[in-house]
């Protein structure tokens, strides 16, 4: 369903050149969930946005559902692939009610049947009539993220991209959202590409996991392998250790810059 | 997020309807938002003073004939010239025997006209130039901003004089002249607001849904830029009124016998020492109205600041 | 130095009056802090950050802070006005916040900011303050303190910024450090380093540390004791090592709701919020494990 070949993204030029993503390639079969894990600056979010078609100057080939997509996407192609962003507050327009946020994609693609589509979307993500006319600041973080998911699903995409969807949420809310995502993936047969810095969250949703560092895809592994510590790359091992709580003995404190 | 166990003393009735955390319709949600903003303004004493003054200006201008006699403002009665404050003439008479009170009342129409016309021109032009400049960036931004810079370079009064020389004096030309020099800061402001939001995730989400640039500009970015533009306009209003009065003072705005406040100050100059009311009363009117707009603008800014972020 | 607790809090309450009624952000919170690492864990809205701020006197008007007892050593915090708190902040009690980008002054070099703190509290000369600042930078394991001294906030990384904040906050030798989500904005490996530094500083100076976080595992692995807060109250007090034996259903719910590497469950058990948890507990009582 998703195929990446040699995707690279660079920002700036000369001394300020930053290679956000370097020659990243992988494939995600239909219905699968692939996770990209890494720390900040690893390039995982950049790759996600390149797949979403949000980076006009990205290089490399992105193929979705058999069609190669260029960086400037025609409106039609937007229906196939949607994204849920990290910050539930930042991804919703502060002056628009939930109703307006969900109506916008319907209006853009002239889908019709707005009323039933909106109510279906709300029910599917576990929200109700009482949330429909609220503004984002009147919703909790979990509720906002549900609205973001509803908005992504209202166009009935085949591919769902997730950029740290639960990082900004409380533990209990995170569990609800993760369960919601699992259920939606099953019910709609979605193909998912998810990005996170939290290994446990990624391993919960995704079957295969790619470890990224400095824009490069270091290794592709599975949740099971990670759990058993069967990772080859030394950076992956470091990441694994760091994810397991505070351990004074394993830390090198001195730092220069 | 907070359950009922943590809050007590919640309002009921229509206030409760407006402040309801779970609105049941678009209208309720929108009215609730406006009501909360109003509450913020209401609590600010100075802002309310400003609002009262501005509303008074509007009412007086619209219902001027109810407050004063139209004839008294224009009829010249030379034997009554330069009469001091009395019951018959609450503000005295001017050098041509016209009642100053009536002239001030009817002059408010001119002030309001100028304020309204300038606003209607300046806000759309400023937004129309600033929003695309901030949104598209690149050469569009460069060209639009250089045009803005050119207009910023003109001092208001000098340009107005130039216009008056070219087109002849009169209110319409004064309005055009003021608008031409007043719009650049709004373009800059709109551009700055756009730049701030340009990379927000909800803009990316809109792009991702296939929204066209125009749709994004109109439905997403403009509503966010509008508050600061309106606040700026309110604060600017005082300056615009003073500029119009200045033009009137120089004989470039409304022409006699129109009771434009600035022109009244000008013609009263020569009588300032002995018949102070001829120049001072219209001057006080200008002052009060400018102050009113200033206070209102400050209050609006406070409300907007506290709700932001 | 007496052997009593560094901080004593009994029945702390923080209320915010508002348009829709009064909001009780913190209610009947009681605990004492010795020379130990105490963690306060809770989700957003639990009141954990508000508690920390109340101790520092940072609750803005119109919020109200009330308590039966709020004592820092022998000093009563309850009657203090802003001036009184300012004398304490930095000198007796300090706070490190989440994002150094927002806590550091962007137009001053970081070294100068640390030195200024020293000058404010000790009225030292510029030279003495600079020396003290350099010493602190070394104490937080920055290997090239002189170079970092002259850098600006935007030039340093997140982890480095937090080290600088720790140096700045500890230079006047406070008894207590309150850290409010100090590592949430940092990468995992950097988190470890910053925590290790805080650990070393607190131990070597015999300080008390309050770590406020939403990350249960982090707090459990780092602190000695853990307080779990929900809806403004403490629902559980636990030794960190015994967190798995927690008794309150909220704590148990939090523990099981976390995804675990290696134990993949089809569905994560959802935390069902029992409205009973919102009822005011009698003062000072929380489940203890």
Quaternary status of these chains? Answer: heterotrimer
- Rg measurement of chain C, Å: 20 Å
How far apart, in Å, are the first and last alpha carbons of chain C? 31 Å
Predict the CATH topology of chain C: Rossmann fold
User: What's the total number of strands of chain B?
Assistant: 1
If classified by CATH, what would the architecture of chain C be? 3-Layer(aba) Sandwich
Q: Assign the CATH superfamily of the largest domain in chain B.
A: MetI-like
What gross morphology of chain C would you assign? globular
CATH class label of chain C: Alpha Beta
| SS-based class of chain C | alpha/beta
Structure description:
The complex is a heterotrimer of chains A (257), B (309) and C (289). Chain A is of the alpha/beta class and 257 residues long. Chain A has a domain at 1-80 and 189-243: Rossmann fold (3-Layer(aba) Sandwich), CATH 3.40.50. Helix content of chain A is 32%, strand content 25%. Chain A has eight helices and ten strands. Chain A has helices at 44-52, 98-108, 114-124, 141-153, 171-188, 199-205, 223-227, 234-242, and strands at residues 2-11, 18-28, 33-37, 59-64, 67-69, 81-84, 159-163, 191-196, 208-213, 216-222. Chain A is globular, with a radius of gyration of 19 Å. Chain B is mainly alpha-helical and 309 residues long. Chain B has two domains: 8-43, no CATH class; 45-307, Orthogonal Bundle (MetI-like fold), CATH 1.10.3720.10. Helices cover 72% and strands 1% of the residues of chain B. Chain B is built from 14 helices and one strand; from the N terminus they run E-H-H-H-H-H-H-H-H-H-H-H-H-H-H. In chain B, helix 3 (45-62) crosses helix 6 (100-136). Chain B is flat, with a radius of gyration of 24 Å. The two termini of chain B are 18 Å apart. Chain C has a seven-stranded mixed β-sheet, with helices on both faces. In chain C, strands 1, 2, 4, 5 and 6 form a five-stranded antiparallel β-sheet that branches. The two termini of chain C are 31 Å apart. Chain C is globular and about 60 Å long. Chain C has a single domain, classed as P-loop containing nucleotide triphosphate hydrolases (Rossmann fold). Helix content of chain C is 34%, strand content 23%. Chain C has helices at 48-56, 82-88, 100-103, 110-122, 126-139, 145-149, 158-170, 188-205, 216-222, 249-257, and strands at 7-16, 22-33, 37-41, 64-66, 69-72, 75-76, 93-96, 176-180, 208-213, 225-230, 233-239, 287-288. By secondary structure, chain C is an alpha/beta fold. Chain C is built from ten helices and twelve strands. The chains are: A alpha/beta (257), B mainly alpha (309), C alpha/beta (289). At the A-C interface, helix 5, helix 6, helix 7 and helix 8 of A face helix 7, helix 8, helix 9 and helix 10 of C. Strand 1 (7-8) of chain B pairs antiparallel with strand 2 (22-33) of chain C, so a sheet runs across the interface.
């Amino acid at each position: 369903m998703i195929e990446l070949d040699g995707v690279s993204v660079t920002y700036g030029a000369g001394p300020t050149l930053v290679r956000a993503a370097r020659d990243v390639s992988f494939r995600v079969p239909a219905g699968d969930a692939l996770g990209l894990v890494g720390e900040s600056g690893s390039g995982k979010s950049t790759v996600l946005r390149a797949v979403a078609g949000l980076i006009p100057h990205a290089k490399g080939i992105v193929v979705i559902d058999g069609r190669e997509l260029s960086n400037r996407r025609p409106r039609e192609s937007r229906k196939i692939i949607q994204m849920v962003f990290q910050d539930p507050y930042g991804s919703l327009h502060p002056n628009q009610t939930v109703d307006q946020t969900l109506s916008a994609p319907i209006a853009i693609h002239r889908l019709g049947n707005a009323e039933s589509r909106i109510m279906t979307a709300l029910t599917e993500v576990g929200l109700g009539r009482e949330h429909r006319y609220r503004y984002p600041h009147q919703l909790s973080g979990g509720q906002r993220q549900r609205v973001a998911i509803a908005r992504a699903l209202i166009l009935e995409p085949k591919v769902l991209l997730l950029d740290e969807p639960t990082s900004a949420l409380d533990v209990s809310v995170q569990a609800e959202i993760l369960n919601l995502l699992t259920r939606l993936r099953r019910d709609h047969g979605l193909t998912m590409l998810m990005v996170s810095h939290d290994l446990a969250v990624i391993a919960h949703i995704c079957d295969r996991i790619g470890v990224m560092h400095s824009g490069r895809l270091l290794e592709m592994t599975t949740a099971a392998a990670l759990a058993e510590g069967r990772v080859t790359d030394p950076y992956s091992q470091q990441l694994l250790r760091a994810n397991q709580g505070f351990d004074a003995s394993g830390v090198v404190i001195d730092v220069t810059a | 997020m907070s359950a009922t166990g943590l809050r007590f003393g919640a309002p009921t009735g229509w206030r409760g309807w407006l402040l309801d955390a779970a609105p049941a319709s678009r209208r309720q949600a929108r009215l609730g938002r406006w009501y909360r903003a109003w509450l913020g303004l209401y609590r600010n004493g100075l802002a309310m003073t400003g609002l009262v003054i501005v509303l008074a200006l509007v009412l007086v201008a619209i219902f001027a004939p109810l407050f004063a006699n139209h004839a008294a403002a224009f009829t010249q009665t030379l034997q009554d010239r330069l009469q001091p404050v009395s019951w018959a003439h609450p503000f005295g008479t001017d050098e041509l025997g016209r009642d100053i009170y009536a002239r001030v009342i009817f002059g408010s129409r001119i002030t309001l006209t100028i304020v309204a016309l300038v606003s209607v021109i300046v806000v759309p032009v400023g937004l129309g130039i600033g929003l695309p400049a901030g949104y598209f960036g690149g050469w569009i931004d460069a060209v639009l901003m250089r045009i803005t810079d050119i207009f910023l370079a003109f001092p208001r009064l000098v340009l107005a004089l130039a216009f008056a020389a070219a087109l002849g004096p009169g209110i319409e030309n004064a309005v055009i002249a003021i608008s031409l020099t007043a719009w650049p800061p709004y373009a800059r402001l709109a551009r700055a607001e756009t730049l701030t939001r340009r990379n927000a995730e909800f803009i990316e989400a809109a792009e991702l849904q296939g929204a066209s640039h125009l749709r994004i500009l109109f439905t997403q970015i403009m509503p966010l830029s509008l508050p600061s533009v309106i606040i700026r306009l309110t604060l600017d209003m005082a300056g615009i009124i003073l500029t119009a009065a200045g033009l009137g003072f120089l004989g470039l705005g409304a022409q006699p016998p129109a009771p434009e406040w600035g022109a009244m100050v000008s013609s009263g100059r020569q009588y300032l020492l002995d018949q102070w009311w001829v120049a001072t009363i219209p001057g006080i009117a200008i002052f009060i109205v400018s102050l009113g707009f200033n206070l209102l603008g400050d209050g609006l800014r406070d409300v907007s600041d506290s709700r932001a972020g | 130095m007496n052997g009593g607790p560094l901080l004593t809090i009994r029945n702390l309450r923080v209320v915010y009056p508002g348009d829709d009624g009064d909001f009780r952000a913190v209610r009947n919170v009681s605990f004492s802090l010795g020379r130990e690492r105490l963690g306060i864990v809770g989700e957003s809205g639990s009141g954990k950050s508000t508690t920390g701020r109340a101790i520092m006197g940072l609750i803005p008007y119109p919020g109200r802070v009330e308590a039966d007892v709020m004592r820092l050593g022998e000093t009563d915090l309850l009657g203090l006005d802003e001036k009184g708190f300012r004398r304490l902040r930095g000198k007796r009690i300090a706070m490190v916040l989440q994002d150094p980008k927002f806590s550091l002054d962007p137009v001053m070099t970081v070294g100068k900011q640390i030195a200024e703190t020293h000058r404010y509290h000790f009225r030292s000369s510029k030279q003495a303050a600079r020396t003290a600042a350099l010493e602190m930078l070394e104490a937080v394991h920055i290997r090239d303190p002189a170079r970092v001294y002259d850098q600006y906030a935007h030039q340093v990384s997140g982890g480095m910024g937090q080290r600088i904040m720790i140096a700045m906050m500890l230079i006047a030798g406070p008894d207590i450090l309150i850290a409010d989500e100090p590592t949430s904005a940092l990468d995992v490996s950097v988190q470890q380093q910053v925590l290790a530094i805080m650990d070393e500083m607190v131990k070597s100076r015999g300080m008390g540390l309050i770590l406020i976080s939403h990350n249960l595992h982090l707090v459990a692995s780092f602190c000695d004791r853990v307080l779990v807060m929900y809806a403004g109250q403490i629902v559980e007090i636990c030794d960190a090592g015994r967190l798995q034996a927690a008794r309150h259903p909220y704590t148990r719910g939090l523990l099981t709701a976390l995804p675990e590497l290696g134990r993949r469950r089809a569905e994560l058990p959802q935390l069902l919020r029992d409205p009973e948890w919102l009822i005011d507990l009698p003062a000072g009582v929380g489940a203890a494990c």
